[in-house]
Predict the structure.
Amino acid sequence: MNKHAQNLRSDSEVVLGIWDRFWFSGTSVASIGTIRGCLVAITMLYFLSAWPDAKFWYGEGGPLSASNVNEFLTTGGLEEAGNWIISPLFLTEAGWVYQLYLVSAIMTAVLVFCGCGGRAASFLLWLLFVGWANRAMLISGLPETLLSLGLFSIAIAPAGKAWAAMTAKPESGTESQSCVKRQHWTAGFSERLLATQITIIGFATWMAMLGGRVWFNGLGAYALAAPVRDRTFDWTGNDSLLVQPMFYESLTHLMVFALPLGFLLSWLPKSSFVGKAILVGWCVVVGLLGSHWLYAMTFAGMTLSIRPSSGRVKAVS
Amino acid sequence: MKMKKTRVLNDKIESTAGEDDADSMSHPHTDGGGPSESARTWLSIGVAIHLVALFVSFTAVVEPSSLQQRLAALFQPYLRPTHFSADDLPVHLTHGNTEDQSHRVEITTQRVSGLASSEDVKWREIGPAEKGGFASLPGFAVSDRVARWLSAAAILAENDQPSLVADLLLPVVERRPAVQGIRIVRYPTDLNDIHVGVSVPYLARVVRSGTTVSLVQMKETRLSAQPRLTLIEPLPVDLRYALDTTVGITSQGTSSQQATANSLSEKPCFTRISDSGQEAGFE
């Protein structure tokens, strides 16, 4: 009995050890810097894209001006839901404030991209982004949610240049080389958080996809490209490959299988690269067919954070 | 004794922690050496709650159970302010239904008298993309925002929420005094039957009275399977308002009833009254 209890305790310690090792082991600050660079670049694109229509939406008399949103929530009896949507931008309808906010956000993004300002700049960027995304309310979508999750996760890691991992030469012994070698547990924690989140989102995406029959009957890929407006490329012309049933049905089934397979392989040490390549390929297809560019780029950027464990935890008993 | 053992275990873990990365880098140096025991505990609890909240939010998108709904509501105070919530976002990419269809908002300076005759009127597309340039590129961020805005308005219109639709659309016409009508146009997808054309989920006449601007929604004529008619006569204005052949909302919180009545009085509206007292309006 005593031996059994000892074994049980030993097992639980091993599990705790795996958990600790997974979340709190150090990793290269430079490698998370590359992923941060990707996400921050996408955030910059997002803020830039918001410039042309910011006044239209949020300016005085705009469809989502503060007074109009207030009226909308009151009319719909949605005041309680609105209580949790917090943004400093609800306080004003002045167009120039929104433009100033965008300029500040873009400048902060540049700072974070260059590795300046430490974690404070990264968290500031996340807060600025959340403030903007919450202000957008009805017109914010999945890319905003992914970017918020991504920016929050990478803000935990120490600051670093986005290009540090790519420019450092092994024999140089320069400052950037030392940055590449530098490890920190917060970098590992940040990377693990990013990877776990995107795996959960990927799993939820897959389950949600299977909730629609188009992903079973082979029409899914075609349905993605089907809207006649709002698509960057038209893949449904008469001479397009996508209109061939054999092609779109195969592509649909591939997309359904590629998502779980990509995540599974990404978490396995020997096939991680192949898994990530499959996931990036999946994102490219989603971007090209559905014109979900920001979503596809953010999803792909987050999948790069998946780093399998070696499984070499030694049990201490 | 147990504490000591756990510490030994953690030391062991930390000492082996960098092995993966050491494969690719010869002599990495680790800053910090990991968080303290209590920090690990609190961080672990925080991570677990965060991931559960995320899982609940993202899996509660397609037909959530009552348990998922309760859990999602529980996590709202955390997920909403941080913008981590998936809410009703299309995580599934597409299900090949109407929510994939593109929408446009169009205005006209001509008088709109009904849904059927609205096709004869000249419409002009408006929105942030109307000036062209980067904002008008299809499939990019601006286009996504317009799509979400109009999709929300179209869904509200189809769910008989004209007041909410008017809240969303009224600002577009308020400052354009020449505008007399506004509509949301829904484009088909290539998955639709070839006979399915452009549909109009929302059509409204713009009624102006002094500084007040109102949108009076014009609905499709409803058919009825009621018993034979016993009376056909024009109804008083107040009764006509009660019968919802058109439903209006005014801006600035003024009398929507009066605005609707005014708009209806421009064109007589006849209502069939059946023996059972139920009715179906037509123009």
